[in-house]
């Protein structure tokens, strides 16, 4: 039977919600009186940005080809339109914050660089004295309290809290980038920026020379960096990103092979099939069929798909 990725305009499980452009929702992720894990199946929100502030307990993020074990405390940033799911231990503790993408655009329009940088999936767990996890969690609590107040100029206060929260998240991201560059060499910085650019670009939108030009380096230099850091060429990393996107369409949607080929900007479905088989050893049809049957080989194929983004840890 065909799998269809769940798509919610509201919160998880609410497929009939029509949220406004000022929508905000804050809730507690509290320990549960149970012995088994619980969670959220892979899904996406077309118009909502979500933040998970995980304070304690064990959690797994299912947003890439292979599930990622999270180390608490951490903050998970999930932009609109990003497929994601979670498995939580009964002891997990934290908070989640959901905000309309349109409201964030309005609040942060004075600093588009923050919107651009934080419009990818990130896991932030390396905190600083100025941007500690406790302070970020406290800001989320202030937002929750303000939401439920009837005080004058409530929206203005909420906008202020959101600005401060996202500035601090932006600073944390930059801190992690500086730390990565300083702990090894500038090649790591170039590689990280290249990965982000690949993740943001549409498949086949850019050539390797375009990515190199963005970094003010030559394609030869970019390839050397990718080989040194990842043991792969720049083109192999770009292709891995395309394969990951194809994986999401094949496993989480019922789109036809032709529709997927068109979405991923292949010239035709035949070229897409050849490309996919070359990089996975399976045709798109066979890959989808094995995934639906939940056969061990299909699970192995999915697990072996290379990740397209570097999730900071």
From TrEMBL:
It comes from Hymenobacter duratus. Residues 207-290 form the HTH araC/xylS-type domain. Keywords: DNA-binding, Transcription, Transcription regulation. Pfam families: AraC_binding, HTH_18. The keyword Transit peptide does not apply. SMART domains: HTH_ARAC. This is Helix-turn-helix domain-containing protein. The keyword Transcription regulation applies.
């Amino acid at each position: 039977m065909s799998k269809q990725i769940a798509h919610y305009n509201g919160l998880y499980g609410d497929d009939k919600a029509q949220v406004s452009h000022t929508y905000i929702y804050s809730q507690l992720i509290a320990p549960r009186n149970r012995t088994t894990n619980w969670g959220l199946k892979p899904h996406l929100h077309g118009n909502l940005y979500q933040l998970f502030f995980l304070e304690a307990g064990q959690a797994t993020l299912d947003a890439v080809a292979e599930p990622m074990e999270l180390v608490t405390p951490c903050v998970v940033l999930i932009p609109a339109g990003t497929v994601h799911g979670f498995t939580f231990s009964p002891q997990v503790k934290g908070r989640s914050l959901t905000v309309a993408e349109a409201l964030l655009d309005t609040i942060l329009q004075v600093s588009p660089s923050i919107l651009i940088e934080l419009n990818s999936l990130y896991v932030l767990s390396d905190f600083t004295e100025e941007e500690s996890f406790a302070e970020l969690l406290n800001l989320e609590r202030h937002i929750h309290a303000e939401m439920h107040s009837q005080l004058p100029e409530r929206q203005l206060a909420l906008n202020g809290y959101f600005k401060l929260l996202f500035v601090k998240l932006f600073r944390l991201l930059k801190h992690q980038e500086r730390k990565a560059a300083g702990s090894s060499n500038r090649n790591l910085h170039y590689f990280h920026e290249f990965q982000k650019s690949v993740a943001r670009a549409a498949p086949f939108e850019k050539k390797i020379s375009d990515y190199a030009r963005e970094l003010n380096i030559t394609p030869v230099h970019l390839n050397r960096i990718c080989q040194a850091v990842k043991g792969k060429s720049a083109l192999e990393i770009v292709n891995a990103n395309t394969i990951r996107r194809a994986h999401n369409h094949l496993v989480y949607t019922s789109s036809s092979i032709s529709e997927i080929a068109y979405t991923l900007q292949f010239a035709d479905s035949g070229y897409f099939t050849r490309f996919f088989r070359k990089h996975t050893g399976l045709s798109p049809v066979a890959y989808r069929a094995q995934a639906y049957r939940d056969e061990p080989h299909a699970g192995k194929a999915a697990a072996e798909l290379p990740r397209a983004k570097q999730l900071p840890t």
